[in-house]
């Protein structure tokens, strides 16, 4: 990959109590001193389905008003799968038994861990379910969930299909959720039967989601519900597009239904985050560009053990 350097090196002098520089400061210094070389090196650490032809491409774009502005594209020409890099490649490299997720809930006292191999089985099966339910590359799927492992399964499964996940924190009021449904126009909603708010106990999501969908001018085709024992979503109304998540996955496993990772372009969208305030949307893409709300796929493809 070709690259150039036009920036001025920035010296980082932050030190710890022993007078030694922190690792993050050393890394940051290298990144700012020569970003092209730095990110080119980082790109060598992930799996590319199609390698990019350069690290960063600069260009000019013109508005209808005639005003022009600088435009940057990270890793143009590249195709990559975040899910493949976060999960598949570790299994393929013989690290499938290493722990990928530790879950320790201070609210319910539940503890669980998943190896990369187990995570891959969950994600590729759920991706197969989503594809069978009509989700395709480029579609948006809205996630409205508590912080449970299934939320991670959902994010990775959606990305596995080349689709975009829009994250809304579970418990948001119906009016706010309806706004986000209208903005993102999701093919489906992935949710849970409830969230648990400390001493308050379980808070059902059913009424909030059904009211939000009723308020919204855009109607998602499906609502896929992770049933929690603390408070179930009953009845699940199939005629309204509602589906029981666990039952769908069980059926898929019995049939051997799975989905392979679908690579997408470096500049394609990966997820949408909604902020509070008058500018509610950040569309995050696939390769690290942050500007006009777009961040791209490849820098997000570097995996780590998740604890929550």
Explain what this protein looks like in three dimensions.
Pfam families: ACAS_N, AMP-binding. Residues 27-86 form the Acetyl-coenzyme A synthetase N-terminal domain. It comes from Paraconiothyrium brasiliense. Residues 93-277 form the AMP-dependent synthetase/ligase domain. Belongs to the ATP-dependent AMP-binding enzyme family. The model is unreliable at 1-14 and 288-308 (pLDDT under 50). Among the domains are: 1-44, no CATH class; 119-285, Rossmann fold (3-Layer(aba) Sandwich), CATH 3.40.50.12780. An eight-stranded mixed beta sheet has the order 12-11-8-6-7-14-15-16, with helices on both faces. A three-stranded mixed beta sheet has the order 5-4-17. The two termini are 37 Å apart. The protein is built from eight helices and 17 strands. The longest helix is centred in the middle third of the chain and has 17 residues, at 116-132. It is of the alpha/beta class. The protein has helices spanning 23-33, 35-43, 82-92, 116-132, 149-160, 174-184, 206-215, 245-255, and strands at residues 56-62, 68-74, 79-80, 99-104, 111-115, 140-145, 164-169, 188-192, 194-196, 202-204, 222-226, 242-244, 264-265, 269-274, 281-285, 294-295, 306-307.
């Amino acid at each position: 990959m070709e690259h150039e350097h036009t920036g001025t090196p920035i010296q980082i002098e932050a030190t710890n109590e022993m007078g030694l520089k922190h690792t993050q400061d050393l890394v940051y210094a290298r990144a700012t001193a020569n970003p092209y070389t730095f990110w080119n090196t980082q790109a060598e650490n992930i799996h590319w389905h199609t390698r990019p032809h350069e690290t960063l491409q600069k260009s000019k774009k013109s508005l209808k008003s005639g005003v022009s502005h600088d435009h940057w594209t990270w890793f143009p020409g590249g195709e990559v799968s975040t899910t493949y890099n976060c999960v598949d490649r570790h299994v393929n490299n013989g690290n499938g038994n290493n722990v990928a997720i530790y879950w320790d809930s201070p609210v319910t006292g539940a503890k669980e861990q998943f190896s990369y191999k187990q995570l891959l089985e969950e994600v590729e099966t759920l991706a197969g379910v989503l594809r069978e339910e009509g989700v395709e590359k480029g579609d948006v799927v809205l996630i409205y969930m508590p912080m449970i492992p299934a939320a991670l399964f959902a994010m990775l499964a959606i990305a596995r299909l080349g689709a975009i996940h829009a994250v809304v924190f579970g418990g948001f009021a119906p009016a706010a959720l309806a706004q986000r449904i209208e903005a993102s126009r999701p093919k489906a909603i992935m949710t849970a039967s409830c969230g648990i708010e400390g001493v308050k106990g379980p808070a059902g999501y059913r009424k909030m989601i059904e009211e939000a969908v009723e308020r919204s001018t855009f109607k998602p085709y499906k609502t896929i519900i992770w049933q929690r024992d603390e408070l179930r979503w009953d009845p699940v109304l199939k005629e309204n597009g509602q589906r029981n998540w666990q039952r769908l996955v069980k059926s898929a496993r019995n049939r051997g239904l799975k989905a392979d990772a679908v690579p997408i372009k470096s500049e394609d969208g990966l997820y949408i985050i909604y902020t509070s305030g008058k500018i509610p949307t950040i569309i995050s893409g696939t390769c690290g560009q942050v500007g006009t709300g777009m961040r791209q796929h490849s820098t997000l493809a570097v995996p780590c053990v998740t604890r929550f």
